[in-house]
Amino acid sequence: MSGKKERNKERREKRLQEISLLRTIPYSDDQRWWSQETVAVVTGANRGIGFEIARQLAGHGLTVILTSRNISVGIEATKALQEGGFSYDVHQLDILDGESISAFVEWIKQKYGGIDILVNNAGVNFNLGFDNSVEFARQVVDNNYYGTKNMIKAMIPVMKPSAASARIVNVSSRLGRLNGRRNDG
Ligand SMILES: NC(=O)c1ccc[n+]([C@@H]2O[C@H](COP(=O)([O-])OP(=O)(O)OC[C@H]3O[C@@H](n4cnc5c(N)ncnc54)[C@H](OP(=O)(O)O)[C@@H]3O)[C@@H](O)[C@H]2O)c1
């Protein structure tokens, strides 16, 4: 392994150790800006990273709404999470479907009045190397860019005004970074 790769690996491992250590330190009461009244919505939470984000937010005591484009799968995921002893709410949501988004926003307004946190996690990727295609690229841009943008536009009006807790978290990827890319075209 080259010196640079070796150093990068060491840096990554050190960072992972730091993160593991931070996770073991409980938050003190004055550090907790959230409570059970803090409502967090996670998109694409029926599996993968979204599922884990939902689990950890509920573990910290927030009210978590798990969303899934297939409601049956979402309900199953919610049941699996509830076995961990925390409560979750669940709703259907497809970030590419305007009607699904509108129905979700209406439900949020009626049931919760608004939300504090939006985690835009839903996304697709096709890391297929040379087997990739323009069609897959289009699906990535549709879901990961326009889908996320749809959600931000729809949810900002129902975000509760709060200096402490209102936030939108966009789960992204290093693959989406444009810096350092050459334009050979
Ligand atoms: N895993 C990685 O190494 C990695 C690295 C960098 C970034 N990310 C990003 O992290 C996020 C989660 O990744 P993951 O690995 O957990 O992916 P995953 O296991 O493929 O899960 C993606 C989730 O997004 C949902 N989804 C996709 N399109 C949707 C739509 N139109 N409406 C609603 N939900 C939709 C999927 O629903 P279905 O179950 O119905 O398909 C699934 O719940 C993605 O945004 C991804 O780009 C992941």
UniProtKB/TrEMBL annotation:
What's the name of the protein? Uncharacterized protein
What keywords tag this UniProt record?
NADP, Oxidoreductase
* SUPFAM superfamilies, alphabetized: NAD(P)-binding Rossmann-fold domains
Gene Ontology MF terms in the entry? oxidoreductase activity
| Family stated for the protein in its record | Belongs to the short-chain dehydrogenases/reductases (SDR) family.
Source domain of life is: Eukaryota
Q: Which InterPro entries match?
A: NAD(P)-bd_dom_sf, SDR_fam
